[in-house]
Every structure is written in structure tokens, then in C-alpha cells.
Amino acid sequence: MNIGQAARATGISAKMIRYYESIGLIPAAVRTEAGYRVYGPTEIHMLRFIKRARSLGFSVEQMQHLLALWRDRDRASAEVKAVALEHIAELRAKIAELEGMVQTLQQLADCCHGDDRPDCPILEDLAASDEELSRPEIKDPI
Length: 142
Description:
By secondary structure, this protein is mainly alpha-helical. The protein folds into 2 domains: 1-58, Orthogonal Bundle (Multidrug-efflux Transporter Regulator, Chain: A, Domain 2); 88-142, no CATH class. The protein has 7 helices and 2 strands; from the N terminus they run ααββααααα. A hairpin with a 5-residue loop joins strand 1 and strand 2 (37-38). The chain is elongated, with a radius of gyration of 24 Å. The chain starts with a helix and ends in an 8-residue tail after the last helix.
């Protein structure tokens, strides 16, 4: 397959395939005499592996590690599980951070009258200094 066909077969854009090759995530493709990249079943399988790993939020570094483990038939599954559990912990931390953002924005939105007046606690908060944000304040939502 050429790169366009590989892109269609895997759901990864040709640009990303070239990028993955440039950073060494996948080996350099075999080239025709005319210089076109050629991908076989092994490379397509590897690209599908990468696509699935990306859909689960693994970083490029984590994918490199997972690909190495995948290729190593003597690996211990415990090492693979450790990578997955570490990623789960990172995802949970991100979820907690996002939930904190939602809570803060909800509080700000609750304090905003949302009328024709120019006063807006949302904009005031965004413009506040770090010192102002660290001071506890009781905001009246009325």
C-alpha cells in the first residue's frame, strides 16, 4: 500500500504517518524506486495499534514503550499492566482537574447576572491577579 491507502486503511492521516516515521515511532517505510513509501500488513497492523493507543490517550512516549512491549514476545504482562495503571492514574488526575474547572466556572456563571449590565464576575475573575485569586471571598450570587 502507498501512504494514502495506508491512511485510509488505518484512519491515520498521511501527515501523521509521516510524523510517526520521523520521530521513530514506526520504522522508516520501504520505498519504491520512485521514492514512494510502501506499507505492508505488519506496518498497517502497527499503525492500527497506534491509532487505538492514541484513542485511549496514551502519549507518544507511552506508545513507544507499548510498541516495544508488543514486539517483545518474552515480555511480562505485568510491565504492560503497570503502563496501563500509570496512565489510568494520569487520566484520573486530569479528570479531577477538569472537574475543578467545571466547578469554578459554574460558580462564576451562577454569580453572573447575565443581563444588560456590564458587570461580569466571570471576566473579573479572568482578569484577577494570582494574589486576588488566592484570597478567599464569599460571592453573592444575587
